[in-house]
Write a structure and sequence with these properties.
There is one protein chain. The protein is about 30% helix and about 15% strand. By secondary structure, it is α/β, with parallel strands linked by helices. It has a single domain (about 15-345), classed as Glycosidases (TIM Barrel, Alpha-Beta Barrel). The strands form four sheets. It has a nine-stranded parallel β-sheet. The protein has a two-stranded antiparallel ribbon with strand order 1-2. A two-stranded antiparallel ribbon has the order 9-10. A hairpin with a 7-residue loop joins strand 9 (about 180) and strand 10. Helix 5 (about 110-120) crosses helix 6 and helix 6 packs parallel to helix 7. The longest helix is centred in the middle third of the chain and has 17 residues, at about 145-160. The two termini are about 35 Å apart. The model is unreliable at about 1-35 and about 370-385 (pLDDT under 50).
Length: about 375
């Protein structure tokens, strides 16, 4: 098989001597308390909102709690979302979008202003546990953002330090697989040489602040790039012969694990063996254009069901068996106003009215007629916490 991957509050509470205490946000670091857990369990979801027909943020919080999904990532810092998450107990990652990266890089005071507007007023009632700076910047088309990305991250981190929040809020930037020169076999994966002048200082910084390496891993995109040579069962976690990495003799029975280990191999080659790999996005489209092979409701249901089951087991990969995989699923809803191929608008696990799009063992706000005959399982209600 050749290359398989596209370049493509609840209020803050602490226990002390057996008693539950509430603290103002500024006291968390001052008292030396444990940092907020940035990712509980192994399962999270991306809450995209490029749509005109999805539920209000307060209804979304109700949906997330009903479906027992604890970790949520958004693509901005919309105050209506931050307000809705107050007192919910959900872990929320917010974002500084690409269009603000240069501004954040040029002026540390701008980063401080952003934190004072979008983070400080909401803590601890809204559990903001992470901030992403940019999305798929390195390897992307706008090369003018490459250098500012590192400077922006440093300025935001310095702002968090001034607020004594650097140990409470995780800082990261998600990468597409366009940062890799090759991904097959997984052990041969390396970063593109032309990106290393930007990637190395970024990784040095993340190593210093103990941030994970986040990658957007999509077996769906790999499959539609070459459906003649990629076994769809391998992409969907279904029974298949898998692949054996000739360099490590490790066997892979699914592409998702292979993509993660490819990222670990690239980090190893660059000298960052201790850095954890997490998945910022993964999913499967339930519909798409005619040339998007495999985009179907049945395949989306199969992928997301099997992925959820795999993450629930909290196991590692063939290369890192003792490091449980953590992943944010893409996405909560279909986003009917997104640009691009048809698949871009069909990744949602839920319909606009809060019903499930297809049955993977989670509950919606309303009863659904989605078939569960193929995917019933005994652990449906055992997925907390995610």
């Amino acid at each position: 098989m050749h290359s398989i991957v596209l370049d493509v509050t609840m209020r803050q509470k602490r226990r002390f001597c057996g008693k539950e205490l509430n603290f103002d946000w500024c006291c968390l670091s001052c008292l030396g308390l444990l940092a907020v857990e940035a990712f509980v369990g192994g399962y999270g979801i991306n809450y995209g909102r490029i749509a005109n027909n999805i539920p209000s943020p307060d209804k979304v919080v109700e949906l997330l709690r009903k479906s027992k999904i604890r970790n949520v990532k958004i693509y901005d810092s919309d105050h209506s979302v931050l307000d809705a998450f107050k007192g919910s107990g959900l872990n929320l990652v917010i974002a500084i979008p690409n269009e603000l990266v240069k501004d954040m890089a040029a002026n540390e005071s701008r980063s401080m202003d952003w934190l004072n507007q979008n983070v400080k007023p909401y803590l601890p009632q809204t559990r903001i546990v992470g901030i992403t700076v940019g999305n798929e910047v390195l390897g992307g088309q706008d090369q003018s953002l490459y250098q500012p990305l590192v400077d922006a991250l440093k300025n935001v981190y310095n702002g968090l330090k001034k607020l004594h929040l650097e140990k409470e809020i995780e800082l990261f930037t998600p990468h597409s697989e366009a940062v890799f020169a090759t991904t097959y076999p997984p052990s041969a994966c390396v970063f593109k040489e032309e990106l290393m002048p930007y990637m190395k200082p970024l990784l040095d910084f993340f190593a210093m602040i103990h941030s994970p390496f986040y990658v957007n891993a999509y077996p769906f995109l790999a499959y539609i790039s070459d459906p003649e040579h990629i076994d769809i069962n391998y992409a969907l976690f279904k029974p298949n012969n898998g692949i054996v990495d000739p360099n490590t003799s490790l066997h892979y029975d699914n592409m998702f694990d292979a993509q993660i280990d490819a990222a670990y191999a690239a980090l190893h080659a660059a000298g960052y063996d201790d850095m954890e790999v997490r998945v910022a996005e993964t999913g499967w489209a339930s519909s798409g254009d005619q040339n998007e092979a495999g985009a179907s409701s049945e395949n989306a249901r199969t992928y997301n069901f099997n992925l959820r089951k795999r993450l629930f087991l909290r196991k590692g990969t063939p290369l890192k068996p003792k490091r449980p995989v953590k992943a944010y699923i893409f996405a909560l809803f279909n986003e009917n106003q997104k640009f691009g191929p048809g698949s871009e608008r069909h990744y949602g696990l839920f319909l606009p009215d809060g019903r499930i799009s297809y049955d993977i063992g989670i509950s919606g706000l309303l009863p659904s007629s989605a078939s569960s005959s193929m995917l019933s399982m005994k652990v449906t209600n055992c997925f907390l916490p995610f």
